[in-house]
Structures
1.
Amino acid sequence: MTTAVEVPTTGGSGGHSAVAARAEGVVKAYGSGETQVLALDNVSVDVEKGVFTAIMGPSGSGKSTLMHCLAGLDTVSSGRIWVGDTEITGLKDKKLTQLRRDHIGFIFQAFNLLPTLSAIENITLPMDIAGRKADKEWLERVVATVGLGERLKHRPNELSGGQQQRVAVARALAARPDIIFGDEPTGNLDSRAGAEVLGFLRRSVDDLGQTIVMVTHDPVAAAYADRIVFLADGRLVDEMREPTADRVLDRMRGFDAQGRTS
Ligand SMILES: Nc1ncnc2c1ncn2[C@@H]1O[C@H](COP(=O)(O)OP(=O)(O)OP(=O)(O)O)[C@@H](O)[C@H]1O
């Protein structure tokens, strides 16, 4: 963990503070007065580059809010957020949209594939829209990692849920974003298809050096991560390295025992 206050570097030259994103003293309040909810209450966290991070915590603890703030999908009430070298708090909409497009990938619970396009067309669509040429070699690696073989020419409705989500992950990877954010990316999948997608996410970190941040409720899914940060009542309360599903389950039971399910 770096404690430096200067703008984080995004590595590349082997710098020691390989931080892909950072939240510093982030507060997010909804509403005001007596009905105010502090979704995030002074959260500081570094998202390490090339690391698979899971965000866990009881329902309502602020997981999605933290992810949305880190990804520039939501504004903060106070505190600061960086994505790579860029402080995004205070950025105007246009710049923020550009930054999201060029540096961030998203995977949601719903696969959000276009039904009339083939798998491979879906994968390259965001770059086609942005008028960017896919790096051919990279695309080949991504496609090889997805392991969809001849199904790449198939349309989404000819693929299983797990395969569709792998296409969605490949689409996020194809543009080589600095970070991929996933909000319950396996939430709609059965456990086998979920394992398939999680294995693929894991490989994209190990083989392609991708940085991933994933919100999940599922201890088994979280065990695929390198690091878990735990939120409770809008605060960062714990973290775990090299988690196992059993240890995560134990930690989550601890929250229940304290009645911290807000
Ligand atoms: N748009 C909003 N308006 C008001 N309150 C909100 C809004 N969005 C979230 N909240 C509140 O902020 C808190 C954190 O919500 P958030 O969705 O980040 O939690 P979460 O940990 O992702 O929950 P879950 O696991 O149930 O999805 C909750 O108390 C929630 O009710």
2.
Amino acid sequence: MERPPRLLCSELRLQGRVCEVSLSGAALCWREAGQSGRRWGSAGVYGPLKAAGSHCVPVCEIIAVQETEEDSPSTDVGKWQKVPQNPSSSNQHSFTVSYVERTLKHRWRCSEVTLHCTDRKLCLQWVQAIREQLALLTIRPKRLLVYINPYGGKQRGKRIYEQKVAPIFSRASISTDVIVTERANHARDHLKTEADLKKYDGVVCVGGDGMFSEIMHGLISRTQCDAGVDQNRPDEELISCGLRIGIIPAGSTDCICYATVGSNDPVTSALHIIVGDSQPMDVCSVHHHDTFLRYSVSLLGYGFYGDMLTDSERKRWMGPARYDISGVKTFLSHRYYEGTISFLPADGTVSTPRDKIQCRSGCNICQMPSLVESTYKAEDSISEAETKDTWQVIRGKFLAINAACMSCACPRSPKGLSPSAHLADGTADLILVRKCSRIDFLRHLLRHTNKDDQFDHPFVEVYRVRQFRFTPRYQETDSELELREVGAGSSKHFFTQICREHPACGCTPTQSSWNCDGEILPHAAIQVR
Ligand SMILES: Nc1ncnc2c1ncn2[C@@H]1O[C@H](COP(=O)(O)OP(=O)(O)OP(=O)(O)O)[C@@H](O)[C@H]1O
Ligand SMILES: CCCCCCCCCCCCC/C=C/[C@@H](O)[C@H](CO)NC(=O)CCCCC
Ligand SMILES: [Ca+2]
């Protein structure tokens, strides 16, 4: 690869040693003078390169550069200082570069290097040259609208933002308007109707998955409203939102942050926001007949996760521990639910839920342009007979029905509900856990926390789908019930009829609720695409 031309090259001092420092359009590099270390880094190098006293930081990972103020006698550019003869006094003219340092477990930190110049003119030349390169990075946000949920997770959202995030945003010269929410749905409503979105390059969510969901709903609804798109129509093609959402994790599960960034660390998230990273995400719409219910990006869970959430909402005061208590309680109740799932499978030649290919930034599968288009084609313009895409129907008794648009990796389950799910491939993984013994279900759950395959059980099925529908048993149509009861005597059909009309009579299990990204849906019968 051709090396980018050097824009500036000088001998500067770093911690008392003379270093050769160079800046190109791709990277800032420094190495001890006279060292025959590796060559200067080239474009496309990720993270600072360190070899035998040589360091390279890609320009796209420089956070900021500042003339170091401590010993500077004057900040007035027009007032020239005498060039010191003694190298030790050259400390007076230095500049500090803050940059991204990658550490373990996908965490990023803000590191600094201070380089000392022989005179102020040179120092200012360096500061200006680096700033000029940073100004070329137009994907970086300059103005952000920040929403803080002060009650998410352990109620630390405000502190996390003020102590860990605001100082780095300010170092990166990002201006912010900060709103601390005063009630649930405050952020959603503000985005939907009030916020002047033209003023901002992005929205920042300080909170958990529920807070992200609020902000996503606000932005999607605002975009559809402005474009005259009716969200109640399940087959409506939605308009993409122009603004990105950055997530500063301060919730209980934080799976949307963890699955997109690789960690639930506020500083890492802040640095990703500053460098202008972006990651597209699948969003599925959930309807009940012709009524729009919600969008989902992480988990849509019926049965186990629905019941657990319903129970945990009453224990919100406990913070994240509520999920452990309600999880155990729901596990012990061992309730199962009957119903019918119909789904449109995704193209199995592209990827499958058990192929062990993990979605990472720049994922090849998510970048295939045909994926989302073919979703529309298959359902809208090509008849089922012309494609191999036909709806499949499964009826049964389930402990859990989960649909994951993304892996749902989180600190509780670092590989997630569906480890090979893709972030932006237009599909979700539908996981059906059929009625089984408690011990088998426990084995399945425990596999979410270790390396074993949670799908490798005879009572678990997983399908990659583009759409699905669910009907709980007591709402099934007569034809669905007749299909189910082929071979059953007429007396059974008679009792089924009674139980459908009186679902709480005790001889059939009642229905569960859907957990939609941590919110309870008001209907059990849903259509998802
Ligand atoms: N000021 C507020 N007062 C009360 N509730 C709020 C406020 N602001 C936001 N909320 C609501 O709080 C709920 C939970 O928030 P959040 O997602 O941040 O935390 P969490 O539920 O603890 O974490 P997770 O969703 O990751 O499990 C959201 O549904 C959101 O709508
Ligand atoms: C006996 C040991 C059992 C261990 C089982 C661990 C299984 C963990 C699977 C993790 C799945 C996370 C799915 C994410 C769901 C979020 O949209 C939602 C909102 O934040 N969180 C929950 O519903 C809360 C989900 C809480 C999961 C515990
Ligand atoms: Ca997906």
